[in-house]
Design a protein that fits this description.
- 62% of the residues lie in helices and 5% in strands.
- It has one domain (2-195): Orthogonal Bundle (Lysozyme), CATH 1.10.530.
- By secondary structure, the protein is mostly helical.
- A two-stranded antiparallel ribbon has the order 1-2.
- A hairpin with a 3-residue loop joins β1 and β2 (88-92).
- The protein is globular, with a radius of gyration of 18 Å.
- α6 (124-142) crosses α7.
């Protein structure tokens, strides 16, 4: 009798924990608040971000600012759908999905190269590891500093080929997005220094 009651309580707690992870955290412009809201035993975002920083050498503020810009910390984010005949919802504009907004092909490359075949774009720990992996490869390929959120974001958005060709040079909108990501990374770094995590 006790075991079945305990199992019910455990199942309800697990469902509540999973449902909490399904919605983006509030106060996404305060990284300390984000980490505080996602500090569960099974899903600790701060620990996941620190592991990615240690593995790839990309600072936590840069990782978190990239995810903030890409998905607003929404694990189910997708680009909008195109419209068939101007009004019927059709296919998504790209295969970008999840916290990292990684494309299918790039995600598959990440899985192959890291051996993380069970990784999911809707799982924060997997997504932040992907962002660290991607930024690290950018740093190695193009000599970008691992704390240069501006150029790391440009390469993230345009892809390695587009960044190498300089496709971003005539795109003032994306340069603005990259500056915003850089500013967010700087803001997150200050916040982390104050909250001491």
């Amino acid at each position: 009798m006790f075991a079945s009651g305990f199992n019910r309580v455990l199942a309800i707690a697990l469902l509540l924990a999973l449902s909490a992870c399904a919605t983006p955290p509030k106060q996404i412009n305060d990284v300390c608040a984000v980490f505080d809201q996602r500090a569960g035993f099974f899903n600790n975002w701060h620990s996941a971000a620190r592991r990615a920083e240690q593995r790839y050498g990309i600072p936590v503020p840069v990782l978190m600012a990239t995810i903030r810009k890409e998905s607003g910390f929404n694990g189910r984010a997708r680009p909008p759908r195109t419209k068939l005949l101007g009004f019927i919802p059709w296919k998504h504009k790209s295969t970008a999905y999840g916290y990292s907004q990684a494309l299918n092909g790039t995600w598959e490359q990440y899985q192959r190269e890291t051996g993380r075949f069970a990784a999911r774009r809707s799982n924060f720990a997997d997504a932040v590891d992907f962002v660290g992996w991607y930024h690290s490869k950018t740093a190695e390929r193009y000599g970008v500093a691992r704390n240069d959120a501006y150029n790391l974001y440009l390469a993230y958005y345009f892809g390695w080929g587009g960044y190498g060709r300089g496709d971003w040079r005539n795109d003032s909108r994306m340069q603005r997005y990259a500056r915003e990501t850089e500013q967010m990374a700087q803001q997150y770094a200050v916040q982390l220094g104050k909250c001491g995590i």
